[in-house]
Write a structure and sequence with these properties.
2 copies of one chain form a homodimer. Chain A is of the alpha/beta class and 237 residues long. The first copy, chain A, has 2 domains: 12-23 and 105-234, HAD superfamily/HAD-like (Rossmann fold); 24-102, Orthogonal Bundle (DNA polymerase, domain 1). Chain A contains 11 helices and 6 strands. A 6-stranded parallel beta sheet of chain A has the order 3-2-1-4-5-6, with helices on both faces. Chain A is globular, with a radius of gyration of 18 Å. The two termini of chain A are 16 Å apart. The interface between A and B is medium-sized, with 20 and 20 residues. Chains A, B: This is (S)-2-haloacid dehalogenase. Chains A, B: It catalyses: an (S)-2-haloacid + H2O = a (2R)-2-hydroxycarboxylate + a halide anion + H(+). Chains A, B: Catalyzes the hydrolytic dehalogenation of small (S)-2-haloalkanoic acids to yield the corresponding (R)-2-hydroxyalkanoic acids.
Chain lengths: 237, 237
């Protein structure tokens, strides 16, 4: 699905990461159950992720100074452990579990899809994850980024316009020469407001196979693809 | 050459770029002579590069606000063109020539050496070049960075400690777990002051084959290698 007339050829594909590139839900389930097999891993993963937006909002409101996602993840982790009967976790266990976000597995189409897309485009992350997290994740999972861009570079979290426009500035391009690729309509809508092109990727199992997500197309997006391989087909890569 | 007792195993190799990874001198000669075959390309390359440190010093002193290398390169370019009888260069020629720094060629050992080093280490840039410049260069030359770090991320130019310590912070490591790889003793000395390990790379032709550079070892460095392949040998990659 694509608009018949593409006004500008995008040069940069900037990818949202959590949910779009990697399957955070099943990876967090795996990691917490490796430490405590009896815990309700699915509920734990959802609770941890649910703290993510409110934590970033505390940074963007100025209540917290600039704080990286690694540190926000740790604040949320410490706050939810008691609800799951895990408040006896040692400091070492907490540190190890907190870096589970560096060890998220990519969706099955991702490495092959990115490799094809990289042949015609510069591919970079545009994630609220910090640079170290994204680099460690890429190294473990074999994600072939040309460049790791992060909220940490811009000192602003998506959906702040400084992030989307920051990608264009880094590459000295017009916003329309950058395309955000994401599995979240709100992220794409904010990018579109800044003049970026957008590609929606269906990730129906983002919150677990038992809780399928609405992946209906929004005609406002430039592209809509089932996965990265389908996007590569559409973009002639 | 290496010290017999390595106190800490480095996890990150951070690379200086201009002169260490890429041969700016002969690449700039090629680019300017492609526009004007009769110009003294070697003198032109040296003059352009000679403006680099003073321009960064104007930023770090506060005389200029934060300014990327692309923009500093342009200021220097405009100032030296008249000396070479090139003040008739069009705006399009100036813009094209200014991005010659995105099109620098790597030394012959670089791609193979980095590929080997990447198998055991996280490899990143630590350059005063801006992120877009470094990413475009890597894409053209096939440099397989895990991550592109730049003065632009830290809003400070080397040898400011914020750059060397910034790499350690990004990866949540102690400074001694980071190694700077560079062909410049002053860059390495500043990194050592911050607690980083250091590897010196010989690039005798950095300023042109006609002006060989002193590449004597300094025993203060952790490693000294002829090129990236020799460094990979020393680091068992």
């Amino acid at each position: 699905m694509n608009k018949s007339a593409q006004p500008v050829h995008a040069k940069i594909l900037a990818f949202d990461v959590f949910g779009t590139v990697v399957d955070w839900h099943s990876s967090i389930v795996r990691e917490v159950q490796a430490l405590r097999p009896a815990v309700d891993g699915k509920a734990f993963a959802l609770a941890w992720r649910a703290g993510y937006r409110p934590a970033m909002a505390r940074v963007m409101s100025g209540e917290l100074g600039w704080t990286r996602i690694d540190d926000l993840h740790r604040l949320i982790l410490d706050s939810i452990l008691p609800q799951f009967g895990l408040d006896d976790f040692s400091e070492a266990d907490r540190q190890h579990l907190n870096t589970a976000w560096h060890r998220l597995d990519p969706w099955p189409d991702v490495v092959a899809g990115l490799t094809r897309l990289k042949s015609r485009y510069t591919i970079c992350t545009l994630s609220n994850g910090n640079i170290g997290l994204l680099t460690n994740m890429a190294k473990r999972a074999g994600l072939p980024w040309d460049c790791v861009l992060s909220a940490e570079v811009f000192h602003a979290y998506k959906p702040d316009p400084a992030t989307y426009l920051g990608v264009a500035k880094v590459f000295d391009l017009a916003p329309a020469q950058v395309m955000l690729v994401a599995a979240h309509q709100d992220d794409l809508a904010a990018a579109r407001e800044c003049g970026l092109q957008t590609a929606y990727i269906e990730r129906p199992a983002e919150f677990g196979a038992a809780r399928p997500k609405d992946v209906s197309p929004d005609p406002a997006n430039t592209w809509h693809a089932k996965d990265f391989l389908a996007l590569a087909d559409q973009l002639d890569c």
